[in-house]
């Protein structure tokens, strides 16, 4: 049985001996505790860090500098243990035939496991760090609301008309903009002759747009299809089932809406499900245990893929910004990952409301997976709302506030929102990637100089998030709060 707090398989009576193993697929690696570094091309490899030998065990990890996105090599590597408890050698090809399984295995190997039983037996009491980042007033489900034939949007969902009128203008101008949101080819960025030019394109996309679509990302389409189906089924569960996973008054994880801080506040035309997925010790076990089994397993695999992808993109951004590689590693190696699944039901008066009010994301990097081809996402560019048309097999990636702060404003988080329509529902999953919970947030030292002084203050990341979730979501107002004014204090 998989323990969803630690990512390990529970096996009663397992012996306590343990070691920590790491696995990476392609690329450069470093081992901060042992001062080792190396390079692997092709196949999956594991390295072992023996707990006793490692003084820095809690923070020790092999850090893939250029994690790969493909696992098709047939190079030899180690695989999960056989039934006899001894480790079997297998080929990379076999190991990753079932990518979902492989990803779960990757996760398991990134935590201590019991040497005598092979893979993922419980050897470590993970101290569950029960951080509650925020709470939100409990609100009804919009999906349930539209089950009754309604012709008008209830007053609590009617949004500011001036803002909404801009949506119509954006729709009219859509064709001009459709081609404009940059598309980054991850394969070209990591391999081959066009790496340099693709890196420049990435840099411009982050500076000028704060948004881009990423293609050739290497995440298996079968995993994405499976995840898509399971998320759709999840929102179709009967209300009685969903209630078991509804937000609680003291914690915003679960079904509901985020950032609802007053009974008067206008609500968005959507239902969402929010949960923290990484690191393991931040997971809310009661939520994980109640997820449908298949979704839970696919979510594990998806979460690993998203972490790999986020780390790859972040390390490329570091390169483009000419930051020191270790700065990003120190901040994100054990980064906080959370997911927000969004369900926007059809709306009888789409011009009166909004699926997700304008906001910038508080994280470093968001990877958005649009589950169907219904349009709805718009980004604010030069004062206009620009629709983002989902490309097949692409993720939409955007810079969040943390990256704007770390880059000292070179990259900018961009306001975006989700619109609804009268005919079709829309679903998306946003994966948010933020820095390690014990890190301090502020501009990267390598980007600061007397000529380029820090424009943002430094705060512990835990405080940053708690303050963020305590506020009503309002465009980029939270980032303004983090800015240093000319006298060296807060700007607001
Ligand atoms: O559903 C969308 O397109 C946008 C979702 C979003 O912005 C978010 O979850 O932060
Ligand atoms: Fe967002």
From TrEMBL:
Q: Which domain of life is it from?
A: Eukaryota
Pfam families the UniProt entry points to: 2OG-FeII_Oxy, DIOX_N
Where is region (Disordered) located? 69-94
Residue ranges of every copy of the Fe2OG dioxygenase domain listed in the record? 335-435
Query: For this protein, what is any one GO molecular function term?
Result: oxidoreductase activity
InterPro entries per the record? DIOX_N (IPR026992), IPNS-like_FE2OG_OXY (IPR044861), IPNS-like_sf (IPR027443), Oxoglu/Fe-dep_dioxygenase_dom (IPR005123), Plant_2OG-oxidoreductases (IPR050295)
PROSITE patterns (alphabetical): FE2OG_OXY
Alphabetically sorted, this entry's keywords are: Iron, Metal-binding, Oxidoreductase
Q: What family, per the record?
A: Belongs to the iron/ascorbate-dependent oxidoreductase family.
Q: What is this protein called?
A: Fe2OG dioxygenase domain-containing protein
């Amino acid at each position: 049985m998989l323990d969803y707090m630690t990512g390990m398989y529970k096996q009663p009576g397992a012996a306590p001996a343990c070691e920590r193993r790491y696995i990476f697929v392609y690329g450069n690696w470093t081992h901060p505790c042992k001062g080792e570094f190396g390079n692997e091309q092709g196949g999956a490899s594991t390295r072992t860090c023996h707990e006793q030998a490692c003084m820095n065990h809690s923070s020790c990890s092999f850090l893939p500098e250029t994690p790969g996105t493909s696992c098709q090599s047939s190079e030899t590597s180690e695989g999960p243990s056989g039934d006899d408890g001894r480790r079997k050698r297998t080929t990379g090809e076999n190991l990753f035939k079932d990518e979902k399984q492989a990803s779960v295995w990757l996760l398991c190997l990134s935590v201590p496991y019991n040497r005598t039983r092979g893979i993922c037996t419980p050897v470590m009491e993970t101290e569950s760090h029960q951080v509650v980042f925020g709470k939100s007033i409990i609100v009804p489900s919009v999906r349930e609301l539209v089950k009754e034939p309604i012709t008008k949007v209830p007053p609590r969902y009617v949004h500011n008309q001036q803002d909404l009128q801009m949506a119509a203008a954006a729709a009219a101008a859509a064709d001009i903009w459709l081609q404009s949101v940059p598309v980054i080819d991850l394969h070209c960025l990591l391999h081959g002759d066009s790496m340099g030019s693709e890196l420049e394109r990435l840099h411009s996309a982050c500076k000028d747009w704060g948004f881009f679509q990423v293609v050739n990302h290497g995440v298996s389409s079968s995993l994405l299809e499976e995840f898509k189906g399971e998320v759709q089924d999840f929102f179709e569960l009967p209300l009685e089932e969903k209630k078991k996973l509804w937000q609680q008054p003291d914690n915003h994880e679960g079904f509901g809406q985020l950032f609802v801080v007053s009974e008067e506040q206008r609500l968005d035309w959507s239902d969402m499900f929010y949960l923290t997925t990484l690191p393991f010790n931040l997971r809310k076990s009661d939520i994980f245990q109640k997820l449908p089994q298949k979704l839970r397993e696919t979510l594990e695999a998806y979460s690993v893929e998203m972490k790999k992808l986020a780390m790859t993109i972040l390390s490329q951004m570091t390169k483009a910004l000419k930051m020191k590689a270790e700065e990003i590693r120190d901040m994100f190696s054990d980064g906080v990952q959370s997911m927000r699944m969004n369900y926007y039901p059809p709306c009888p008066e789409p011009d009166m409301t909004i699926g997700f009010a304008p906001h910038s994301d508080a994280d470093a990097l968001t990877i958005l997976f649009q589950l169907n081809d219904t349009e709805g996402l718009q980004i604010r560019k030069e004062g206009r709302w620009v629709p983002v048309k989902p490309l097949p097999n692409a993720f939409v990636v955007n810079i969040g506030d943390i990256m704007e702060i770390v880059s000292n404003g070179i990259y900018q988080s961009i306001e975006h929102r989700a619109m609804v329509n009268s005919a079709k529902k829309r679903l998306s999953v946003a994966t948010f990637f933020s820095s390690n919970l014990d890190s301090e947030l502020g501009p990267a030292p390598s980007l600061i100089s007397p000529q380029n002084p820090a424009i943002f203050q430094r705060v512990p990341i835990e405080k940053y998030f708690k303050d963020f979730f305590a506020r009503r979501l309002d465009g980029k107002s939270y980032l303004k709060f983090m800015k240093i004014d000319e006298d060296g204090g807060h700007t607001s």
